[in-house]
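[job 0412] stage=complex_fold ligand=zinc ion status=START
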Amino acid sequence: MLIDFHTHIFPEKIAGRTIEALIKGIKTVQGEDYENRDGSPLAFRPATLAGLLASMEKSRVDMSVCLPIATKPSQTESINRFAETVRNEKTLSFGTLYPTDPDRDRIIDDLAARGFRGIKLHPQFQQTFADSPEIISIVRRCAELGLLVVFHAGMDIGLPPPVYASPERIRRLADRTGGENIICAHLGGWQMWDEVEKRLVGTPVVLDTAFVRLFISSEQAKRIIRTHGARKILFGSDSPWEDPADTLKFLLSLGLTDEELMLITRKNAEKLLGLTV
Ligand SMILES: [Zn+2]
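[job 0412] stage=complex_fold status=DONE, emitting structure tokens
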């Protein structure tokens, strides 16, 4: 059983052009000739539900969690309606909202009532600092309702600074909210792993393994996982930006114990998603 806690899909109609626009963003920030250093494609599969299911079959992923992002308040409702249709025994989607949306409390209550397990926030896309009053209030309300909040954390490959969800800001957010319902993508802060080790390791926040393998040293990845504790690490790929087969290969190369791997690839996710009795 392998659960991928970090994937992205879009409705059929917009999937192609959305990926094109995101790749354009990567090339604007990283340089026109930017490529993955192992030669893998920037997006390895069609960014649709069908594309996700086909890749899961190939990589033997049993369940994927989709994480949508509203980049303006007006998108929230249609994204959440689409997210609600992504519920079967192999996939489920979190909801989304825009942090400064004055309607956010109602949206959170509504998502909880509709059976969502959590929401995704992307402070970088949403230009709201992770320790802003709006996000503190969202995390608290979600905690009261039993909802998880997944954050994009650290720098973003396709968006310029400032960094809206640095490990330092996430630490402040966790200190203000308790941090138990916070999941930080990219091992706590993409390209900011020294700061993760200073500020986030040892706190209650959960970290995922998405989209780090080409950027972090194996030693540092293993050290973060070990010091933070495998009980607070989730397997996530960031598919279609990384093939979960590659994420798994990277994870298996770190020399973790079978018990640690079982927690990261399955047990922690089952617990957070309420799949165990
Ligand atoms: Zn992602």
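The pocket of zinc ion is lined by residues 6, 8, 185, 210, 238 (CB under 6 Å).
[job 0412] exit 0
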